[in-house]
Design brief:
The protein has about 280 residues and is mainly alpha-helical. The protein is about 75% helix and about 0% strand. Helix 5 packs parallel to helix 8.
């Protein structure tokens, strides 16, 4: 099977800078594609997508480089590029989802509602889109873009790549920190939900005043956790609807349990009041 021109491995700092600029370019193009993919079905511009705060999605940059290296620049037959490009990028998406879930204890995307999917991590629709993107990448974009980047010269690529890398590194550190904090917050909400469930199940013999105090304490803790998210954590929540829904479901379950407990307390109080009236 004949292939197109392969992407060379970097052999010096200048080559590494050129490769990094290529990675940033594809991460930015991927972010633009993600925004279009999410916005068109809604009929309006959707919330900003991506793990990072900047206008780029690293998974697309990694995917583009992986396709270019694994397929040696792409097959001359576009059908083969489509098939193998879809396979390579789907494997990347699957393991990225698995690693991020193990690292942060959160599911960052979920395709369980799609007809053809594997463990909610990859789906046929996205794999087909990735295959088409691989054809566009190898047969159209890469030859033109790589020629433009290498044509800039070391006097431009080296300082430009260094400057962008500094911003990229700071963004990555901020985003990872926010993801860990959000993960911790979700863990505390789950713990609070479990504590409330156990407390209700135990049916402790406590006076109504003490029960009301405990409910108020739980409600305040839940409110504090809900409001503790900073601007970067809130940005992650807006960018990942599945995580936002999980958080909202946890808060809703806690509220429902508290409301149920309050309703039981009110019924008990009404029962005592009626008994007193009969006496």
């Amino acid at each position: 099977m004949t292939t197109l021109q392969a992407l060379p491995l970097p052999s010096n700092f200048e080559d590494l800078c050129e490769l990094f600029l290529l990675y940033i370019a594809y991460s930015t193009l991927g972010w633009c594609g993600e925004m279009l993919y999410c916005s068109i079905p809604k009929g309006h511009l959707c919330e900003k997508r991506g793990f990072l705060n900047g206008f780029l999605c690293p998974i697309y940059g990694h995917g583009a480089l992986l396709v270019l290296y694994c397929l040696h620049g792409g097959f001359r037959n576009p059908v083969l590029t489509f098939i193998f490009g879809a396979i390579v990028t789907s494997i990347l998406e699957y393991f990225t989802s698995w690693i991020m879930e193990k690292l942060f204890h959160m599911r960052w995307w979920d395709y369980s509602h799609y007809k053809f999917q594997i463990n909610g991590r990859v789906c046929l629709l996205n794999s087909a889109c990735f295959g088409l993107a691989s054809v566009l990448l190898c047969h159209v974009v890469q030859p033109w873009l790589w020629a433009r980047i290498t044509g800039l010269g070391a006097a431009i690529t080296s300082p430009l790549a260094s400057f962008i890398f500094g911003i990229y590194l700071m963004d990555t550190i901020l985003s990872v920190r926010s993801a860990f904090q959000l993960s911790s917050q979700m863990g505390k909400l789950r713990k609070l939900q479990a504590e409330l469930k156990d407390y209700v199940a135990e049916k402790r013999e406590e006076n109504q005043e003490r029960k009301a105090e405990r409910r108020a304490e739980v409600r305040e803790r839940a409110r504090a956790l809900r409001d503790s998210a900073d601007i970067f954590e809130r940005r992650l929540l807006h960018s990942h609807p599945d995580i936002r829904k999980s958080r909202e479901d946890l808060l809703a379950a806690i509220r429902a349990r508290l409301n149920e407990s309050e309703a039981e307390a009110k019924r008990a109080a009404d029962g005592l009041f009626n008994e007193d009236k009969k006496d």
